[in-house]
Design brief:
Elements (H helix, E strand, L loop, with lengths): L1 H4 L13 H28 L6 H17 L6 H24 L7 H4 L2 H21 L8 H22 L6 H21 L4 H28 L1
Helix pairs in contact: 2-4, 2-8, 3-4, 3-6, 3-7, 7-9, 8-9
């Protein structure tokens, strides 16, 4: 676990990681930061957070663990991207607590929404921490990140269909897909033997492309 707990000493770790893979990974992380920034902008404008609340709790927990408890050993530049995503997610989670219950139809969830969100956050923090500590993750958090990403990619179309496509951003959809897709390419360079996370990445890419198709289809019906 030494590589996880130490803050990276170089800006870009070309000693332990393939340079081409680092480019793909860095661009992928940048697209995710763009996705978060757009979510923050639209939630202030529309008073609606398109990220499902259960996933918002999982995201901020994962980013906290990898931004401040452990650190990716790809370099300082990548660690800073993780931290930037965390601070953007703080705004997202705040607005989830503020507006998230507005579109919940089940009274059992709506009436206890903030408690459910906070309990979910605590649960995700513990899960992410021990997933890394017990040795199940890679040195950049890929295994835990992609397991979370599977849930994101499954829940996004479900919530979009239930709530209405007019609330959901095409920029976020494309940024999510490109971000995860580019990071998936980097995993083939970084961990050629880790077929588990490679297949998780492929599954997420298929789900994200399907979500973009559905979002375009439902938005056309609105016009």
């Amino acid at each position: 676990m030494q590589a996880f707990t130490n803050y990276p000493e170089v800006w870009v770790n070309t000693k332990n990681f393939d340079v081409t893979g680092l480019w793909f990974n860095g661009l992928g992380c940048a697209f995710w930061v763009i996705a978060y920034a757009v979510i923050v902008y639209t939630m202030i404008k529309k008073k609606f957070v398109e990220m499902p609340f259960f996933i918002a709790a999982g995201n901020i927990a994962w980013e906290f663990v990898w931004a401040f408890v452990y650190h990716p050993n790809t370099g300082i530049a990548f660690a800073l991207q993780y931290q930037a995503a965390f601070f953007l997610d703080c705004f997202i989670f705040y607005y989830v607590l503020k507006y998230g219950a507005n579109h919940i139809k089940m009274p059992e969830i709506k009436n206890n929404f903030k408690v459910i969100c906070l309990v979910s956050l605590a649960g995700w923090l513990v899960l992410n921490y021990y997933f890394v500590k017990d040795g199940f993750d890679t040195s950049i958090g890929a295994n835990s990140g992609y397991l979370l990403n599977i849930i994101i990619s499954i829940m996004y179309p479900i919530v979009m269909i239930q709530t209405g496509a007019q609330y959901f951003s095409k920029i976020v959809a494309w940024s999510k897909m490109l971000g995860t897709g580019l990071i998936t390419v980097s995993l083939f360079y970084f961990y050629p033997e880790n077929h588990f996370v490679q297949w998780l990445g492929i599954i997420v890419l298929v789900l994200d492309c399907f979500y973009i198709y559905l979002l375009n289809l439902f938005r056309k019906k609105i016009v």
